[in-house]
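One-letter codes give the sequence; the integers encode the fold. A sample entry reads:
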Amino acid sequence: MPGLMAAPTGPQGYRGQYTGSRESVTRARHDVEMILSTWHLDELRYPAAQVVAELMANAVSHCGVKPVTMEMTRTPAGVRITVEDSCLKEPVPREAAPTDESGRGMLLIAAFASAWDWEVVRSSRRPVGKRVWADLAM
């Protein structure tokens, strides 16, 4: 798989570029599961897969088919997952009605993550997108 590199020892980080298509969500989820397995962090595979799927799905559904970057870094407490896209829409947890088919993503992320936040990405002081991150603890 091009671009997938995760070392079992030493500094552990991953950065992948995705097309922004719906298939990117599945690919990023699969990549995260493989990386965590390589890092011997199997206990984080399920929650990390859920978090990256929600972050990527949000990027794809709100930005259209534009490139999305996903990074995962091992931290002393677990891992940090970061998704960067070209949209400026703030990710806000909201209450979804029982009949709503979407709208629970950020609540799911908040449930799995020990912390999460977002920031505006700038180029030459001009906003060009956003970066959303979530920390998962072991």
